[in-house]
Amino acid sequence: MDEEFDWQQDDETNELVSRFEEFLESGEGHFFDVEEFEAIIDYYLDIQQTSLTRSAIEWAQEQHPGSNSFKIREARLFTQQAKYKQALKILDDLDMLEKGNEEFYLAKGEIYSLTDKHEKSIAAYKKVLETTERPEEILSNIAYEYESLNDYPNALRHLTKALELRPDSEDLIQEIAFFFELTGREEEAIEFFGNFLDRHPYSKFAWFNLGIFYSNLELFEKAIQAYEFVVAIDDEFASAYFNMANAYTSIQQYRKAISLYEETLKLEKPEAITYCYIGESWENLNDLEKALVHYNRALDLDDKLADAWGGVARIFVRQNMEKTAVKYYEKAIQLAPAQDDLKFELAVVLLRNHNLEKAAPLFEEVVNHNSHYVEAWLNYSLVLALEEKFDEAINTLTEALKDNASEARIFYRRAGYLYRQKRIEEAYFDIEQAVKLNFNKHEELLEYLPELLNEPRFIEILDLYKKPNS
């Protein structure tokens, strides 16, 4: 948490600081009143100049020995240095003298927060609420402490109170959105921001976050409407154009997405990821030349962007330049070793080129990292089957079913391998399970085992489970 000791640097402050530093250098006598010393010390605390803060406090205490405000600032300095015991001792010594002093309770609240005494921090901040002229900041601090206690309802309640006082605050809206996202309450977030916008219809930040939550729920048309309100209020809100473009991509309106990504490029410094997404959109529109141009523009800006390397690799695959594509995939995976899609795509290329030795470990890495990646399971089993390792292929698909028990394709594929191994009864058990789950997918099994069409038992199962108009 960053405590809110606001500091506005201005010409007057600069002049004070310069005078103080001249005094330190020359040793000539200078007198600063209490408010001037407070301003000087706060400036140094804000920029975390420890030695100058200490010097200013010492001179302030010498010139004004009766002022407790310098002791509070000394406690804040100790807090910056993580010397919490010393800081708390100073404040405890002042406790009876400083009842009602806002800075005193703010300093205490910060120390308690940093030492994980969140209930005490809340109590200290609540003392400030009784007198402060900036209650929204204190409510935000209290919310942070409740968050640290995993008490999200109270955290949200205090942030909502703060937002009522400052409905134009981007930071508060972002904090509230964060809490909803953290607790996975997208529907409640949509209701909250909807109600808020009924009262404050021109809050672009509320519309923006509403769009994000609609997107999270895959309600992309509603997300687009929310982002359109953002740009109607502020036609230079680059992130709204970018997010709207992502939403259009999700509903496969790629030309509209491209126009919005390009609008983003006009409004802010071009970023590699924007060019990369434009490249993906052109790729989806089968304009490989424009896709390649934009992927390369992305790499010109950031040669460590794995998605752009992967995009170029896909273009080479589609241009039948698979040896070159492999090099680009390898570079992408080197940059993003946890990206399963890149490993899967490379493994498919290797499989297609009969490089089973290199394909198998890639498929294995993908399924070990993501047990729900069905295509990777199927292809991994295929590699094993092509290597005549049918028992391993069967065992692999048995493992796959642990987390994908409703996936008909796995049953069909395992049935094929079982049949090849003359384990006919087991194969037919899997066939029956598969047709129950997805009748139409039996065509994939017939591609592998066309001879099944000559077996009365197989035809009987199809007739039994065939639905009208299947």
Description:
This protein is an all-alpha fold. Among the domains are: 1-166, Tetratricopeptide repeat domain (Serine Threonine Protein Phosphatase 5, Tetratricopeptide repeat, Alpha Horseshoe); 183-268, Tetratricopeptide repeat domain (Serine Threonine Protein Phosphatase 5, Tetratricopeptide repeat), CATH 1.25.40.10. Helices cover 74% and strands 0% of the residues. Helix 3 (50-63) runs antiparallel to helix 4. The two termini are 60 Å apart. The model is unreliable at 1-8 (pLDDT under 50).
Query: How many β-strands, per DSSP?
Result: 0
Q: What proportion of the residues form beta strands (DSSP E)?
A: under 5%
CATH fold-level name of the domain at 1-166:
Serine Threonine Protein Phosphatase 5, Tetratricopeptide repeat
Q: Say what oligomer this is.
A: single chain
User: Overall pLDDT, averaged?
Assistant: 90
Work out the helicity level: over 70%
Report the C-alpha radius of gyration, rounded: 32 Å
Write the layout of secondary structure elements.
Blueprint: H1 11-26, H2 34-46, H3 50-63, H4 69-80, H5 84-94, H6 102-114, H7 118-129, H8 135-148, H9 152-165, H10 170-182, H11 186-199, H12 204-216, H13 220-233, H14 238-250, H15 254-267, H16 272-284, H17 288-301, H18 306-318, H19 322-335, H20 340-352, H21 356-369, H22 374-386, H23 390-401, H24 408-420, H25 424-437, H26 442-448, H27 456-465
Helix pairs in contact: 1-2, 2-3, 2-4, 3-4, 4-5, 4-6, 5-6, 6-7, 7-8, 8-9, 9-10, 10-12, 11-12, 12-13, 12-14, 13-14, 14-15, 15-16, 16-17, 16-18, 17-18, 18-19, 19-20, 20-21, 21-22, 22-23, 22-24, 23-24, 24-25, 24-26, 25-27
